[in-house]
Amino acid sequence: KQEVTQIPAALSVPEGENLVLNCSFTDSAIYNLQWFRQDPGKGLTSLLLIQSSQREQTSGRLNASLDKSSGRSTLYIAASQPGDSATYLCAVKQGTSGTYKYIFGTGTRLKVLA
Amino acid sequence: EAGVTQFPSHSVIEKGQTVTLRCDPISGHDNLYWYRRVMGKEIKFLLHFVKESKQDESGMPNNRFLAERTGGTYSTLKVQPAELEDSGVYFCASSQRGPGLTNEKLFFGSGTQLSVL
Questions:
Q1: What is the tens place of the pLDDT at every residue in A2-31?
Q2: CB-side exposure of A54: number of CA atoms within 13 Å?
């Protein structure tokens, strides 16, 4: 059974710092891994999607890496800003025989202090 | 382009009552998913529609939950009768690309916060 773990559960950093969020998964048979952001009372916004054949994806100040064999992904945020404060979730996509689902981690609550 | 929309945003009901949640996916998205987040726990899969067909409902907690997707457009999730442990945030997501593809990207709605008292 796939288990997705995110460490740390919460993180508070001063503005301008570079930071790394971690995601680990127990079963490497995945189709892709997505990083999401959730603001309070809002839905999830997809930040980056890394397909199983890829090693990393970049979007602006965000960079996500994927090491399938070791079951790990990291989300790197450069020069953090107060507007980055949110909960960050990773999810892996699994499935066989026409049924597919995303398995989510519990998230990392990030607070960037001005 | 409108995103995934969910109604209502909040619902407070008493134990034993019935509640129906609605999700309107992005137009043209064949895949529609329901997920739920119970307080303090991770977001968990409930079920997956491809157009109007239930592709996978292995995550549905029990037979008090009934999901439908009329004509492959919007979807409803009915809880009848509601119990205290059904409280949580119910998310809907949709995607355009085939679910078996590695580049399937999910678009989520804002969720419905359900409180059962």
A1: 999 999 999 999 999 999 999 999 999 999
A2: 17
What CA–CA distance (Å, rounded) separates A17 from A79?
Answer: 5
Contact B112, B7 (CB under 8 A): yes
Residues from chain A contacting residue B45 (CB–CB below 8 Å): 101-103
Phi/psi zone of residue A40: left (φ > 0), alpha (ψ -120 to 50 degrees), beta? beta
Type of residue at A15 = E
Separation of alpha carbons A15 and B69, rounded Å? 45
Token readout for B3 is 């995103």
Question: Nearest Cα to A71, choosing from A25, A36, A111, A106?
Answer: A25
Tokens of B92: 């809907």
A93 contact B CB<8A: yes
Per residue in A78-102, pLDDT (tens digit) is 999 999 999 999 999 988 777 788 9
Q: How far apart are CA A7 and CA B64, in angstroms?
A: 35
pLDDT per position as a tens digit, B4-49:
999 999 999 999 999 999 999 999 999 999 999 998 789 999 999 9
Cross-chain residue pair A93–B104, CB shorter than 8 Å: yes
Q: Is B41 on the interface with A (CB under 8 A)?
A: yes
